[in-house]
Amino acid sequence: MVTMPEISLFFGIRITMYYDDHNPPHIHAAYAGHRALVDIQRCCVMRGSLPNRQLKFVLAWTELHRDELMQNWELAASDKPLLPIAPLM
Questions:
Q1: Interval 4-35: pLDDT, tens
Q2: Read out DSSP for the chain?
Q3: CA dihedral 7, 21, 3, 74 (to 10 degrees)
Q4: Distance, CA of 49 to CA of 87 (rounded, Å)
Q5: Per-residue pLDDT tens for 30-70?
Q6: Whole-angstrom Cα distance, residue 31 to residue 42?
Q7: Which of 23, 65, 22, 21 is nearest to 43 (CA)?
Q8: Beta 6-10 vs 26-31: how paired, if at all?
Q9: What is the sign, positive or negative, of the torsion defined by CA atoms of 40, 1, 14, 33?
Q10: Is the distance from CB of 5 to CB of 82 less than 8 angstroms?
């Protein structure tokens, strides 16, 4: 089974990242049964969907933490522990 550690949690939105996942660099966002893959560098949905309000939160958070997310992407590619990222407040 592939691990998908939680790197942040805010407003009921869970942000995770797989180890050794496919490119482009992305995060997994989940909220109330909805799921979306968000491209870190382009800050857009690659697949799936979230309710509009939660999607705006995730995209804003992704933009704010792009550097930290890319650092985690590199750590995940090297099978190293991921760092938690501050939630949106």
A1: 799 999 999 999 999 888 999 999 999 999 99
A2: -----EEEEETTEEEE--TTPPSSPEEEEEETTEEEEEETTTTEEEEE---HHHHHHHHHHHHHTHHHHHHHHHHHHTT-PPPP-PPP-
A3: -50
A4: 20
A5: 999 999 999 999 999 999 999 999 999 999 999 999 999 99
A6: 21
A7: 65
A8: unpaired
A9: positive
A10: yes
Give the whole-angstrom CA distance, residue 57 versus residue 20.
26
Residue type, 17: M
Tokens standing for residue 12: 């009921």
Tokens of 21: 């996942």
What number of other Cβ atoms are within 10 A of residue 78's Cβ?
A: 9
Structure-block tokens of residue 62: 């992704």
Long-range contacts of 24-32 (CB under 8 A, 24+ apart): 25/69, 25/70, 25/73, 27/62, 27/69, 28/4, 29/54, 29/58
Q: Which two tokens stand for residue 7?
A: 């790197």
